[in-house]
């Protein structure tokens, strides 16, 4: 700010010239009138009535005038600022009124409209994918078989050639039904349906058995004490491991598309001999992520392979336990993980999502999967 100066010519303080003040006022009023919304008006207020506006800056210069000229200049500035603030007030009122009218129209709720108060449910994607997995085999002529979830130990273990001291029988893995002498367990796999099917159906037997299974696992991202398997069983004359392999190939093609390799790794199950774990090539990276320098694959963890389950040639002891002539008939069986298939095929990363039963998880999957 300039210091008071008796010999100062007020005409030299440019900001205080009447025509400058008039122009600043007119600019302000024009900007205020042009503001088409409250946000724009706020900007106009800052620019033309704020601390750094031309009129505010001119006001500061008053002190630089000779005392005789100050009153006149002060009056002129006061009049200009008054006009600006009057215009602001008026435009503010107009714009608020406009906004209120608009909100009333835009946000109107017709409380008389009928509303469906029953929230929509959804099929669980595990159910849908389990049906789809079974359908691949139904299309090849398999029938769908079922068995009880509370199962006799004999079907779950003995008939499947588990010796009495097999570790899977211990409390660690199996839920036993009280009291112990009931001989009942929550089935630990769908394989008991193999024996039930052989006992109740005429040969040859081609069945798949989707269903719920139970093991004493803690719930975490990849385990659940309740899970699902798809069992497959084919018993006929002259079946070989090549037929098993072909059926798994057809499953992989049916679920994940053509051209994916299947591999079998030697394994052990009491009820199959020989036994294998079966993997499919990762349908996302198609095995490419194992190459050095290749981008990592989230689906297979850059393994290139996805584990599907266990399989093998049905142990003749199982056939004998089910009253089948093991000299004449042979066949194979498999057990595929349903949760695993959903996780891989649909990128579900956490088992919790599958078991919590929140309809918001299930709805987006729709009726077809
Ligand atoms: N029942 C086995 C499991 O739960 C899987 C399996 C089924 C293996 C049929 C071989 C044949 O791990």
Automatic annotation (TrEMBL):
Class of this enzyme: ligase
Keyword annotations from UniProtKB, A to Z: Aminoacyl-tRNA synthetase, ATP-binding, Cytoplasm, Ligase, Magnesium, Metal-binding, Nucleotide-binding, Protein biosynthesis
Cofactor detail note: Binds 2 magnesium ions per tetramer.
GO biological process: phenylalanyl-tRNA aminoacylation
Cofactor: Mg(2+)
EC numbers for this chain: 6.1.1.20
Gene3D superfamilies: Bira Bifunctional Protein, Domain 2 (3.30.930.10)
Pfam families (UniProt xref): Phe_tRNA-synt_N, tRNA-synt_2d
Domain Aminoacyl-transfer RNA synthetases class-II family profile: 127-364
GO molecular function terms listed in the Swiss-Prot or TrEMBL record: ATP binding; magnesium ion binding; phenylalanine-tRNA ligase activity; tRNA binding
UniProt catalytic activity: tRNA(Phe) + L-phenylalanine + ATP = L-phenylalanyl-tRNA(Phe) + AMP + diphosphate + H(+)
Residues the record lists as binding Mg(2+): 273
PROSITE patterns: AA_TRNA_LIGASE_II
Gene Ontology terms: cellular component: cytoplasm
HAMAP family named in the record: Phe_tRNA_synth_alpha1 (MF_00281)
Similarity field: Belongs to the class-II aminoacyl-tRNA synthetase family. Phe-tRNA synthetase alpha subunit type 1 subfamily.
Subunit structure: Tetramer of two alpha and two beta subunits.
Name this polypeptide is given: Phenylalanine--tRNA ligase alpha subunit
Record lineage: Bacteria, Bacillati, Actinomycetota, Actinomycetes, Streptosporangiales
Gene name, Swiss-Prot/TrEMBL: pheS
